[in-house]
Hints:
The complex is a heterodimer. Chain A is built from 9 helices and 13 strands. Chain A is of the alpha+beta class. A 4-stranded antiparallel β-sheet of chain A has the order 4-8-6-7. Chain A has a 4-stranded antiparallel β-sheet with strand order 10-11-13-12. In chain A, strand 12 (228-231) and strand 13 (234-237) form a beta hairpin. In chain A, helix 6 (169-186) crosses helix 9. By secondary structure, chain B is an alpha+beta fold. In chain B, 24% of the residues lie in helices and 33% in strands. Chain B has one helix at 28-46, and strands at residues 6-12, 16-17, 23-24, 55-61, 67-74. In chain B, strands 1, 2, 3, 4 and 5 form a 5-stranded antiparallel β-sheet that branches. In chain B, strand 1 and strand 2 form a beta hairpin. Chain B is elongated.
Amino acid sequence: MPFGNPICLWSIGRRAAAGGRWVPDALINKFASRDGLTHEETRIIAGLVDHVRTVPAKQDIIPQLERVSSSTLLLDGLAARYKVLSDGRRQITSFQVPGDFVDLHGFLLHKLDHGVLAISPCELAVIQHGPLKRITETEPHLTRLLWLDTLIDAAVHREWLVAMGQMDALGHSAHLLCEFYVRLKQAGRAQDHTFSLPITQEEFADALGVSSVHVNRSIQELRGLGLITWKGKTVTIHDWDRLVQVGEFDPTYLHLRKEPR
Amino acid sequence: MVAVPRYFFHVHDGRETLDETGTEFADPDQARAAAVRAAGEALRDLGGKFWRNPEWRTWVTDESGATLCTLTFSSEKGG
Lengths: 261, 79
């Protein structure tokens, strides 16, 4: 792990000094990719992390309906927000990649209306709501960047809703794979159209809201068309343009442009 | 640990698409239930394209190749 680099795209974070606080580079990099950060703002984010925790794969990071007094930032791994119906059927409502908060909305909502699951082993930074509140009182620009993060969450939810309501499973699968690639690439976890996707067919299906049988068909079809291979935990996109076309993927909703906020 | 059985969901919609990877289910009843849901999803995705081959069929086999069930969706235009 590249400890010591001030801002390294592949670093999830680092300890500031012996016994010092954990510096969440993943978040600093993400904010810096959306707007410039001043040294002072970088210093404030660097001092936010209370502690780092790890959660094994397939375990809850935060259980459903938990009351929270801190927000959790994903440093490494893949996480998902979900809800489960009374008969056990589960809907995954979003994925989080490194640099994403799993529950920044918990800062004001206090009680989560969903659970958060570690899809793969996760390393997470816990940020208490007290320091976040101080930011909202003294740092208008950082406050806007935190706000922007929840706005982009909402934009992703809208995009998923449209895909779930109107797209066929082939297009929806293509769309989600495009989204994974773009988001993981931004987080420094994908390049050359290849990325690690440590999720099961069932989890992918629960995100699309269709049966794993039907999703399996769609993935086979994307494979048969020569657009992707998905071997074990590795996805390779062979024809990005056609995958984008099949998935009607337009990354506008991810709001990746760097501009004054 | 007991291996979870795998079931294969094939489709005929004018051409035959055989499922070679399969999906795991605890027992045949769950696989038969999944066949109904997946058939509904496949027909939803087909929409108007269904009429190109208005005979649609799916069938489920287990690892031994035995058929668990067959679902047929047939149709006719006009009264």
